[in-house]
Amino acid sequence: MKKIYLDYMATTPVDPRVKTAMAPYFYEKFGNPGSLHSFGQETMAAVDFSREIIAKAIGADFHEVIFTGSATEANNLALRGVTRLAQKFLPVRIIVSSIEHESILETAKDLEQEGIEVIYLPVDKKGFVDLEKLKKSLNKKTILVSVIYANNEIGVIQPIMEILKIINEFKSERKSSSLYPLFHTDAVQSFQFLDCDVSKLGVDLMTLSAHKIYGPKGIGALYSRGTRCQALGARNEKNKLLGPNAYGLAPITTGGGQEFGLRSGTENVPAIVGFAKATELAMDLRESERKRISKLASYFWRKLKKIYPEVELNPNRNLQTTKYLPNILNISFPGHSAEDLLIKFDMAGIAVSAGSACSVRSARPSHVLQALDLPTERIKSSIRFSFGKFTTKKDVSESVKRIGRILNR
Ligand code: PLP
Questions:
Q1: What values do phi and psi take at 93, rounded to 5?
Q2: Which of 62, 66, 302, 389 gets the highest tally of CB atoms within 10 A of its CB?
Q3: Positive or negative, the Cα torsion across 194, 79, 98, 92?
C-alpha cells in the first residue's frame, strides 16, 4: 500500500536539489565559519552567500537576516529580544493574536509571568483578527504587535497591510518619533505561496523556517529591520545604549557573537545552505504551485463532500477565495473523534493531523479552532489535510477512496 502524506503544514520532505546543495558542507567543506583560515573562510562565504539569497527573496538587506535554530527560536528572539531591550526604558505591553503558533503564544504567556502586559487579539468566525480591538489596544506602552501572516491550522491570511496602517496611524497621532510599536509577523507558512517582501508588507520583524519549504529541519531566520545598527552595539557615539527611538532587539543567546551579536552559536552551515536553496526553489515555484495546489484542494473537497456530505470546513468558506492558503483544508467529520480518525487514517496509509504538530501530542483541543468559537464537538472531530509539492491528483483521489472505506461510504 502506498503511503500518502497529506501533512505538509507539519513539515515537508527535503527537495533532492536542496540535499545536493547541502551535501559538501557535511564533510569536504566543514570549517567553522568563525575560523580565520581557509576552511573557515570557505564556509563563511557559504553562509554570507545564503544570507544574501534569503535577504534578496524578502527584499531585505544582508544584515537584516539572522539565522536561528528554528522558527520557534526566531519567534522567541522577536518577542523576548524586543521586550528585553524596551523594558530598560519603559513599561511595556505587547499585542499578539489569539491564533498564533505555540512558539508565540507560549512565549507571550511566559513573558506575562515575568510581569509583561500581554493583550491577546481575538479573531472573528472566519479567523481574521479583530482590528477594532487592535486599535483600542495600542497605547504608549505598546512596543510590539505580533500577528501571524498565514495560520498553520486553518490557513487564514491576515490583512498585514491593514494592520500596518493602524499601527502607522497610531504612531502619527502620537506625534512621537518613537519607532514603537514594532510589527512582527510569523511568515513560516506563507512564504511558500505569498509575497513576503518586507518593504511591501512594512513589517519590522518576520520569521521564516526552512523545513516548511522543502529545506532541512532545525534552521530558521528572523528578519529584523535595521539590524546593522544593533549589531554595532545598539549604542550611540557616547557609548550609551540606544533608547526607544532605535529599532531594538537584544540577544537572547549570548556567546561568541555570531549573527551580528544577536544569536551566538556556531552557524549550522549545511542547513543554512539548504535553507537558501529551498528559498530559491520556493520563489521559482510560488505561482505555479499555488494554482496547482488550489485545484487539488478543491478536487479533494468536492470528492470528499460527495461520499460524505456531512463534512464541514473550518472555517466555512468558498474555496475560491484567496484569503486562505491554497494547500490546507481543516475538516470536521461529524460523529467521529479526530483522535480515532487519525489512527484509522494512518492505518490506511494516510498521514494527516489534528491541529498543529505540537498540540497534537498533548491532545489539547486546538486553540485556533477554539478561537473561531466552534462547538466543542466540531473541534474534536476536526482533521487538518495539507497538500504540497509532491501531492498528485492520484494521491488525492486514492485518499478519498480510502477515507470512504474507513467511513463505510
Ligand atoms: N510558526 C508557524 C506558523 C509554524 O507552522 C511552525 C511550525 O509548525 C513554527 C512557527 C515553528 O517552526 P519550527 O519547527 O521551525 O520551530
A1: -130, 140
A2: 66
A3: negative
Claim: this prediction has a pTM higher than 0.90? yes
Could you give the maximum distance between any two Cα atoms of the chain, in Å? 75
CB 354 within 8 A of CB 338: yes
3-class SS at 28? coil
Coil, helix or strand for 169? helix
Q: Ligand 1: does its nearest atom lie under 6 Å from the Cβ of 360?
A: no
Give residue 356's pLDDT: 57
Centre of ligand 1 to C-alpha 365, Å, is 18
Residues 6+ apart with CB under 8 A from 224: 64, 66, 78, 204, 205, 230, 247, 249, 262
The residues annotated as belonging to the active site are 358
Give the integer Cα–Cα distance in Å for 265 and 61: 22
Distance from residue 232's CA to the centre of ligand 1 (Å) = 29
CB 385 within 8 A of CB 403: no
Ligand 1 in reach of 146 Cβ (< 6 A)? no
pLDDT average per 10 residues of sequence, the chain (409 residues): 96 98 98 97 98 98 95 98 88 97 98 97 98 97 97 98 96 80 97 97 97 98 78 48 58 91 95 98 97 97 96 94 96 95 96 70 81 95 97 97 93
What separation in Å is there between the alpha carbon of 209 and the centre of ligand 1?
7
For 117, what's the count of Cα atoms within 13 Å in the CB-facing half-sphere?
12
186 Cα–ligand 1 center, Å: 8
Q: Hey, how many other C-beta atoms are within 10 angstroms of the C-beta on 403?
A: 26
Place of cell 500577528: 147
Q: Which of 14, 212, 328, 367 to mutate to test the pocket of ligand 1 (most atoms within 8 A of CB)?
A: 212
Q: 305 phi and psi, to 5 degrees?
A: -60, -35
Which of 8, 72, 98, 100 has the most ligand 1 atoms within 8 A of CB, as the residue to mutate? 72
Atom of ligand 1 nearest to the CA of 103: 10
